[in-house]
Design brief:
mainly beta, Porin, eight-stranded antiparallel β-barrel, elongated
Length: 286
C-alpha cells in the first residue's frame, strides 16, 4: 500500500514539474495586421502639352458697303457668319494639383485643377466684301487675316481611375474625367494682308486689335499611365492625358467695327484637343 502511494506521489510530482516546460514550448500565433487599401491622398503634377489646331467662325460686320463695294449706310450690321480657317495653340508646360480618395485596392477618384498658358496663332482667308473693297478678285485673292494672341486655360475635373494590376512596385492604370474649363483670351492682334494681286497696289497690311473674351466650357478627359512606389506612401505617377474642351467665345469686334455700332462677341473657336504628357507625385495618408 505504501509502495502505491509513493508511486502516485512521484507521478504527480513529475506532472507538476514538467508543466512549466510545456507552457514555455507553446508559440503564440502571429496576428497579421491588414494593409490599409482605403484613404485620402494628395497629388501634384507637371506636364508638357503638345501643339494643337482647331478652327472657328466669326460674325462679319458690314461697315456700310454693298456687294459691289459701293458705299451703302443701310448695309451696316452683321452681314454673315464666316468660317475661320485655322487657330493654333503652341506647345507649353502645365501644372496641376488635386486631392483624392482610394475606395479599394483597384478603384480611386480625385478632383484636380490644372493651369496652362500658351500662344495662339490664327489665319483665315478674307471675307468676300473685304476682297471687293480691295478691288481684287475673290478667287484665290491671296487676302489673309493673320492674328495672334495668348490663351490661359484652367481645367477643374472630377476623375476616376482603375488600377489594373500590381507588378512589384509598378501599377498601371486607366481613367476618365469630366468637368469644366475656363478659357481666357488676351487681346488679339490682327493683320490683314491684301495679297499680291494688282488691286493691292503695294497696299500695306491693315493692323488692328480685338478684345479677348473668356468663357466656361465643358471638358472631358481620358488617362492612362502607371504609378511607381517610392515608399509605402509616396508614389511617382507618370502618364498621358487627352482632354477635349468644347467651343466658346474667343474675341470681340475691333475699333473700326465698333465705331459703326458693332459690340459683343465676334469670334468663337470650335474647341480644343489637348494632348499632355504628365509626371508627378502622389502621397497616400494611409
Amino acid at each position: 500500500m505504501r509502495a502505491i502511494t509513493s508511486l502516485s506521489l512521484l507521478a504527480l510530482g513529475l506532472l507538476v514539474g514538467t508543466a512549466p516546460v510545456r507552457a514555455a514550448d507553446i508559440i503564440d500565433p502571429i496576428v497579421e495586421v491588414p494593409i490599409a487599401t482605403t484613404g485620402w491622398y494628395l497629388r501634384g503634377d507637371v506636364g508638357y502639352v503638345t501643339r494643337s489646331k482647331t478652327s472657328g467662325d466669326y460674325e462679319f460686320w458690314n461697315q456700310g458697303y454693298d456687294k459691289d463695294g459701293n458705299r451703302d449706310l443701310s448695309a451696316i450690321g452683321k452681314d454673315e457668319t464666316v468660317h475661320y480657317d485655322e487657330i493654333k495653340l503652341r506647345d507649353g508646360a502645365s501644372v496641376g494639383a488635386g486631392a483624392g480618395y482610394r475606395f479599394s485596392d483597384q478603384f480611386r477618384a480625385d478632383v484636380t485643377a490644372d493651369y496652362f498658358k500658351t500662344d495662339v496663332d490664327g489665319r483665315s482667308d478674307c471675307a468676300y466684301l473685304v476682297e471687293i473693297g480691295y478691288n481684287i478678285s475673290p478667287v484665290d485673292s491671296g487676302c489673309r487675316y493673320n492674328d495672334s494672341s495668348e490663351a490661359t486655360i484652367w481645367t477643374l475635373m472630377a476623375n476616376a481611375y482603375v488600377d489594373i494590376a500590381h507588378f512589384g512596385p509598378i501599377t498601371p492604370y486607366i481613367g476618365a474625367g469630366a468637368g469644366f474649363a475656363h478659357v481666357s483670351y488676351d487681346t488679339m492682334n490682327s493683320s490683314t494682308q491684301c495679297g499680291t494681286q494688282p488691286g493691292c497696289n503695294g497696299r500695306p497690311d491693315d493692323q488692328g486689335s480685338h478684345p479677348g473674351y473668356d468663357s466656361w466650357r465643358f471638358a472631358g478627359s481620358l488617362m492612362a499611365g502607371a504609378t511607381i512606389d517610392i515608399t509605402q506612401q509616396l508614389k511617382l505617377d507618370a502618364g498621358y492625358r487627352y482632354t477635349r474642351i468644347s467651343e466658346g467665345d474667343a474675341f470681340g469686334f475691333d475699333d473700326a467695327d465698333a465705331a459703326t455700332g458693332a459690340s459683343g462677341v465676334q469670334g468663337r473657336d470650335h474647341g480644343f484637343d489637348l494632348h499632355t504628357i504628365r509626371a508627378g507625385l502622389r502621397y497616400d495618408f494611409f
